[in-house]
């Protein structure tokens, strides 16, 4: 029986068409739908006991699943697109993510043609397994501060890789702890006593025969991480080198080269390309944020439609908690954010592909913008998604705290995204540097392009005032864009003015960094809002689909406007009355979305297997499933618990000597 059938009947739009919008194309939908069912129906990919397994058992099970996934990919002749969807629906972090997601891209992006020819075929067949070994015990954010050394030995034509201090131990790389045979290791290049900065080196870590660490290599897992199951399926590792020798041709030499006679040569590509793998992965993280958030929102929305509290009249049913405005005010902006992040993720993938093509043609002009966009949007979307998952857990009341809700594990597995691939604050500071540079160049005649083109309208935006007179005026895209542009430009200009008061710009930057981060957030929010609005300019087929997306877009920007009202008011763009009208319009949009809420989350097309949540299951039959699941907990294997006779019975039977007790 479908306990959510009445909700589904209320939908005012074509859910099948919305599924295609969400997937990106009909083809992408068909692939995704087919692979999600394939995974859901395969007992080899079960995950329902994951949060109950001890680490060793959990990890071994992940190794089994990864090998099984690889076999299925081969047996079924899956394409790269299908294999990547399979990884997504298997829903378990594993060493394979770092192999495919960082090791391979690092060789592709930083290796010469010759190096790619040698290493990529081995990696593609998984005859070697690689990790990305950059972070150390002492330094993660400050890549220039890494201590591992790679010293060129001209006698033997080798590099000597060494960990000179405890803090130079590699620490965190995924897949390193127990599986990787190789790593792209980042180290400080030294030639003839002279330092040449951080470079990547392909280093073999373990024997391909017996998997033992090679001489001079000390390697292991760094230990349990936050949450049950969650990221503990990954072997994040520690690694030390004691004068390990590798051939000279294992330095990744696309950006710079070391010749046989020990000369250091720089290609004409910018040295920042050494950071290129991080740009790639940040872009994939943005594309993934909408998936994690939409998953949590699906659970919270379906459960909010099932759950009833208070409000029974004449013995009738109580109120569905989704009908409380407070619930809507917490839930619907997250639903809207999931859609917003989907569209900005699609756009960022386009931007990344565009910059990659330009780089191949030796056009490096858009690299700074690509860095700022990937860094800023990675920060914005992962912070909002991690907070959003936790909010969804609270939206499910007490039951959200059960592992069987799926939300605790989803949060635990997702929240490190705020840290890995660049701490979110550190990344926003990179955006702020980009903005300050842009503002400082405004008078130079250099026209700001792309996502900062709005800075070209600085004079207009500094003067302009909001013209909204009634709540519906907040539905005009041009009005909304101007509001977000004016806020972003005014915050950036205010920071630039304050910075100019410092004689030492770096001191000023450090002193004003909290304001700079806020200016960077305003800029990134503008990007997300503008990309959502751009999406709505496209032809979107299907009854009512565009109207729902318009309502969600409105919820997204009006919610931001309400949350950051202080910014908008402080920059004098809005009056308090106009801010209040924005809030009236936001409430009206909640009412519009309410009957469509369950259908809007159905449009994500997630299987019950992928959701991994009793509260979020498609049929909404929550209570019997919760009740049954409780009895399956290993603690209920016996009626009297282990330990009763040692620890509980003696308490119950003790003879108390103290009269007062
Ligand atoms: C059980 C499972 C079974 C499934 C099995 C299936 C298997 C089969 C699958 C087959 C599939 C096939 C298909 C494959 C699909 C692949 C999918 C895989 C999934 C992918 C996802 C990957 C997983 C993600 C997990 C994440 C793991 C985490 C990894 C890490 O964290 S790695 C370490 C990251 N570290 C950081 O991010 C450090 C942060 N710090 C920095 O970036 C920098 O140091 C800095 C930028 C903060 C400062 O640097 P620096 O001091 O040098 O810089 P400045 O002086 O400030 O700047 C100088 C100058 O440079 C500019 N700049 C800085 N950075 C960049 C940059 N990145 N790019 C360009 N420019 C940059 C900066 O702006 C300055 O410019 P200017 O001088 O001002 O002009
Ligand atoms: C689950 C997980 C997986 C990972 N996988 C990998 C991997 O595969 N390979 C790899 O190489 N690394 C990996 N990492 C490491 C990760 O990239 C780093 O942890 C990350 O870049 C943050 O660096 P850090 O730990 O040095 O944090 P720190 O920089 O020490 O941050 C600590 C605090 O200091 C603040 N801070 C730091 N610098 C500044 C500044 N300049 N201004 C203001 N505030 C600042 C930060 O905001 C933060 O609040 C992984 C990490 C995690 C958690």
UniProtKB/TrEMBL annotation:
Q: Which residues bind FAD?
A: 135, 174
Q: Where is the active site?
A: 421 (proton acceptor)
Family the UniProt entry places it in: Belongs to the acyl-CoA oxidase family.
Q: Where is the Acyl-CoA oxidase C-alpha1 domain?
A: 275-436
Q: Name one GO biological process term.
A: fatty acid metabolic process
Which GO cellular component term is one of those annotated? peroxisome
User: Which cofactor names does the annotation list?
Assistant: FAD
Ranges for domain Acyl-CoA oxidase C-terminal: 477-653
Sorted keywords for this record are: FAD, Fatty acid metabolism, Flavoprotein, Lipid metabolism, Oxidoreductase, Peroxisome
The record's subcellular location field reads: Peroxisome
Q: Where is the Acyl-coenzyme A oxidase N-terminal domain?
A: 14-129
User: What GO molecular function annotation could you give as one example from this UniProt entry?
Assistant: oxidoreductase activity
Full protein name: Acyl-coenzyme A oxidase
Superkingdom, taxonomy of origin: Eukaryota
């Amino acid at each position: 029986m479908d306990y959510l059938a009445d909700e589904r009947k209320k939908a005012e739009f074509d859910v099948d068409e919305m599924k295609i919008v969400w997937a990106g194309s009909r083809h992408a939908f068909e692939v995704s739908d087919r692979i999600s069912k394939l995974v859901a129906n395969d007992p080899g990919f079960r995950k329902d006991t994951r949060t109950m397994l001890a680490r060793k058992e959990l990890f071994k099970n992940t190794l089994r699943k990864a090998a099984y996934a690889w076999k299925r990919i081969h047996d079924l002749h899956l394409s790269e697109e299908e294999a990547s969807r399979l990884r997504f629906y298997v829903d378990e972090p594993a060493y394979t993510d770092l192999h495919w997601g960082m090791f391979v891209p690092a060789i592709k992006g930083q290796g010469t043609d010759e190096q790619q020819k040698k290493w990529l075929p081995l990696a593609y067949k998984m005859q070697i397994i690689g990790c990305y070994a950059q972070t150390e015990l002492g330094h993660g954010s400050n890549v220039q501060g890494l201590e591992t050394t790679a010293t060129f030995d001209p006698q033997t034509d080798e590099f000597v890789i060494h960990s000179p201090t405890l803090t130079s131990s590699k620490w965190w790389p995924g897949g390193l702890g127990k599986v990787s045979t190789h790593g792209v290791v980042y180290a400080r290049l030294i030639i003839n006593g002279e330092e040449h900065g951080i470079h990547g080196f392909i280093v073999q870590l373990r024997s391909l025969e017996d998997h033992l660490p090679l001489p001079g290599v000390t390697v292991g897992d760094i230990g349990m991480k936050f949450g049950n199951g969650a990221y503990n399926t990954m072997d994040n590792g520690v690694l030390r080198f004691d004068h390990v020798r590798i051939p000279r041709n294992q330095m990744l030499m696309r950006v710079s080269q070391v010749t046989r006679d020990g000369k250091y040569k720089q290609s004409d590509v910018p040295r920042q390309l050494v950071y290129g793998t991080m740009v790639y992965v940040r872009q994939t993280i943005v594309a993934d944020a909408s998936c994690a958030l939409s998953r949590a929102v699906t659970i919270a929305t379906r459960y909010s439609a099932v759950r009833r509290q208070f409000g029974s009249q004449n013995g009738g049913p109580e109120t569905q908690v989704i009908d409380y405005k407070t619930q809507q005010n917490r839930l619907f902006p997250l639903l809207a954010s999931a859609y917003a992040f989907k569209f900005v993720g699609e756009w960022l993938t386009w931007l990344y592909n565009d910059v990659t093509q330009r780089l191949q043609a030796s056009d490096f002009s858009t690299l700074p913008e690509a860095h700022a966009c990937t860094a800023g949007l990675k920060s914005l979307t992962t912070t909002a998604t991690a907070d959003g998952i936790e909010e969804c857990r609270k939206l499910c009341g007490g039951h959200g705290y059960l592992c069987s809700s799926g939300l605790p594990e989803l949060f635990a597995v997702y929240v490190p995204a705020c840290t890995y691939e660049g701490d979110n604050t550190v990344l926003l500071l990179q955006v702020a540097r980009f903005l300050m540079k842009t503002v400082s160049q405004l008078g130079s005649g250099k026209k700001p392009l792309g996502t900062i083109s709005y800075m070209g309208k600085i004079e207009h935006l500094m003067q302009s005032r909001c013209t909204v007179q009634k709540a519906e005026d907040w539905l005009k895209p041009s009005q909304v864009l101007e509001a977000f542009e004016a806020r972003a430009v005014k915050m950036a200009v205010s920071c630039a003015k304050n910075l100019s008061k410092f004689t030492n710009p770096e001191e000023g930057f450090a002193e004003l960094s909290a304001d700079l981060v806020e200016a960077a957030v305003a800029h990134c929010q503008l990007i997300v809002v503008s990309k959502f609005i751009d999406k709505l300019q496209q032809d979107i087929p299907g009854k009512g689909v565009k109207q729902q997306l318009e309502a969600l877009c409105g919820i997204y920007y009006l919610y931001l406007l309400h949350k950051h009202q202080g910014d908008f008011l402080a920059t004098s763009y809005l009056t308090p009355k106009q801010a209040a009208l924005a809030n009236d319009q936001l409430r009206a949009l909640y009412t519009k979305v309410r009957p469509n809420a369950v259908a809007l989350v159905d449009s994500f097309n997630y299987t019950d297997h992928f959701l991994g949540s009793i509260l979020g299951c498609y049929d909404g039959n929550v209570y019997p499933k919760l009740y049954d699941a409780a009895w399956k907990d290993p603690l209920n294997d016996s009626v009297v618990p282990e330990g009763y006779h040692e620890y509980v019975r003696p308490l119950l039977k003790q003879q108390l000597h103290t009269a007062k007790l």
